[in-house]
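Technical note accompanying the year-one report. For the benefit of new consortium partners, we illustrate the data format agreed upon in the data management plan: each record pairs a sequence with a structure-token string. No post-processing was applied to the example shown here.
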Amino acid sequence: LIVDGTNHGVHCLVVPIRNKKGKVLDGVRIEDCGDKLGLHGVDNGRLWFDHVRVPRSALLNRHADVDEHGTYSSPIDNPNRRFFTMLGTLVQGRVSVGGAAISASKSALAIAIRYGLKRRQFGPEDAEEVLLLDYRMHQRRLLPLLAKTVALHAAQRDLVARLHQAFSTDSPSSGASSQADDDEQAQRELESLAAGIKAIATWHATTTIQICREACGGAGYLFENRFASLKADTDVFTTFEGDNHVLLQLVIKGRLTKYRDQFSEMNPIELIRFVADQAVDTVVEKTFLRAMAEAVQDLALDDRETVRKADYQLELFRAREGHLVHALARRLKKGMDKGLDPFEVFNAVQDHLVLAARAHVNRKVLESFQAQIASTEDAALAGVLGDLSALYALSTLQEHRGWFLTHGRMSPARAKAIVEAVNDLCLDVRPHAAAIVDAFAIPSQWVDVPMLDTA
């Protein structure tokens, strides 16, 4: 929105594109995007505007207005705060996409696990064939995905609660008050978390649906058993409402949110120097203390006992995140010291940046899950959820055990104990698998597929 030559940033306007008879208005061009991989119920298209004029009343003026004299005004004085307030709808969209991805993962798992509890195949001679879900490999394929889905559900619940709270309060009316600063920080943290969970949840859905399809064999490939629709309609989740790799770059900026004021005003070179000076000092101290604490813990506890402890699992998540952020800061500083172009410096560390962002989101998810388990009063339920939490944590640690071994954060014996613990936890979760997917409460018409009747 530009008024008298002053650019006031992104604002929302309502612009008619057709008249009452459905004819495209002058200056407006519309084009359909054409056939897609899936999601054909959504009519995607493109719009062009060429000197289209709308009245002043077309401006949605909750956060800013232009009066009849052409004077711009806003109750939010700070331009940066106003910008993030205007973009609040993007946060809602990303939260919705993340939630939809988690729901799709639940549907796929509900179908595949129920099939695994009905379909029998092979087994010992002169004995009944074995249920698919009683095979360790089948458990290994599905149950860690189930655990991660429940963990993401917990994090999504926290995110939705924070979103509801943010949009239930009045917008900040001052650009200078402490309350307004707190609101801005909370808004940016919310945006970062929404972006991170959206990225992780949508990638998880793509992986989960494919593995569930394979776990159902040829029957899973039949259109009537729904995996085809799930794949077609959710594949786009990884790129709409923001490409996941781009969103994870936003997450890292949120990771350093306490430096937000300096961040927003810095040019790329100043930003590199600031990250190097600030992040390195703070993270080095924390990771050193954590390494010392882990070394003492390693001496005191048996490997199999240690890896099942929730505090230990969370500490490893935090340690990896801290190390990655610290190393990222060092790489940024190294590029700056060499006098490289700021774009080249950031481009060179993008892979590292995404790793750090994913580690951050994984840690936030585990924290949310563990916190909700701690508040669960039903001891039996808390026990099952605790097993799911441990399975999510340890299967994630197993996925990255090469990193922990390379960086001296885990002994070979500890890494082996984690693999064994994942196997044990799959056995522990197996008796509850049906109850867990039943608890998703998915309407029967979406999961009662034909192959369940013929297994």
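Partners are asked to follow this layout when depositing records. The two ends are 61 Å apart (CA to CA).
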